[in-house]
Specification:
The protein has one domain (36-491). The protein contains 15 helices and 2 strands. It has helices at 3-54, 61-81, 84-92, 98-116, 137-161, 167-183, 190-223, 228-255, 264-290, 297-340, 351-379, 385-405, 411-440, 449-454, 460-491; strands at 120-122, 346-348. The chain has a two-stranded antiparallel ribbon.
Amino acid sequence: MSDAEQRTQWTTLDKDLNRISQLELATSYVSRPLVAPGIALAFIVLAGLGAGVFFGGSAMSMVVIAAAAFGAYMAINIGANDVANNMGPAVGANALTMGGAIVIAAVAESAGALLAGGDVVSTISKGIIDPAAVASSNVFIWAMMAALISSALWVNLATWVGAPVSTTHSVVGGVLGAGVAAAGTAAVNWPTMGKIAASWVISPVLGGVIAALFLAFIKAKIIYQEDKIAAARRWVPVLVAIMAGAFASYLALKGLKRIVKIDLQTALLIGAGIGALAYVVTAPLIKRQSEGMENRNKSLKALFGLPLVISAALLSFAHGANDVANAVGPLAAIVHATEFGDFATKVAIPTWVMVIGAFGISFGLFLFGPKLIRMVGSQITKLNPMRAYCVSLSAAITVIVASWLGLPVSSTHIAVGAVFGVGFFREWHMERRLKKSAAGRPEAKRIAPEERRRRKLVRRSHFMTIVAAWVITVPAAALLSAVIYMLLNTFVG
């Protein structure tokens, strides 16, 4: 073989190897988006197999296996959507990296669900459907299955669109739709539904107002002071004490139901004691941390960083304790009805069901959570540690105020409403300062309407998408649930 032929052969081989390497790269690129759904599917299958181990000898074991699989699917969607509201502000403020937020949230959510999660859950989801109207346990099982499937599908769709929605409201819609399909509109407790509908407005407005008030306080008492560091030494320990007291009350009220039942007055007393202790501990720490700091806003951000991370972790723990039980409620109801052949207004949540909820949330957060975390943390409005701290503080305080007033509220709506509240307050504050400066300088150039719109600090497209998703969550989940119930009843029941 001549040298020219050898060179041609090696050139051909190089081209073929290059094509193979490009094919491998393309395959890797195409298959990458399939990794997360593949892991999620494996977890769903494992949840079903685990349920089969517990109910292998039961005549209705296939129903429980299917319910466990859909329960795992629901838990994954909660992790992908609901948990973002707790971690989004901290990530958006650069107080936490995405990886750090996911690890903290996964641990805190799982701990909240397993250590302090409610051991009893309302199977008719907050008394929406009259149990007497449900004809038999078979009808009840298919109604709960339809509620579970529809709420999971709706939360999945909302996550894909990029809208943080209330998991509890999705379950409420699912139970409502299946209940109406099974027993008619007369079975619905419409006053309860009216209260839940009112919470669509109350939750975000209350969360937004409280967050805006705290931000106004921080601006007036710390940011706009001549000596910012001295002002921070005075007020940051007070704000940390309020946070500690609010979360202690919140966790005592909502997160420790499994261990001990605490009324609102006792919870507030516990909060006051923890708040006072937090102030005593925090004041010298803030003083030491602030020594040598420059008198500028960047220094203030550093002082709020650690309290923000702690508040995000506490929010996740409280969410795991309070909301996971609502999400796995339909699964617990199906297990009870299958095991005992009847249905009750309240049932105990088996440990293995709560484990599915806790681990499913962690998987969902890890695999699909970053999209909604970015949305809440940075795409609605720009957050820094002070603004994000106001969001976390507002979330805890709003739940306590709502409990005191007896109003049903959504933690998702509160947190996202607080982000909007901070953004709209900043817009209002900026407009006011512009008007003041223009009044002092009559010759100042007027800002064109187009430029004014461009300077808006809250993205209106995200605002409209999220509000629309909130409004249609219950009706959409209800309609989907009614259709699924009729299909199940026709082809399986």
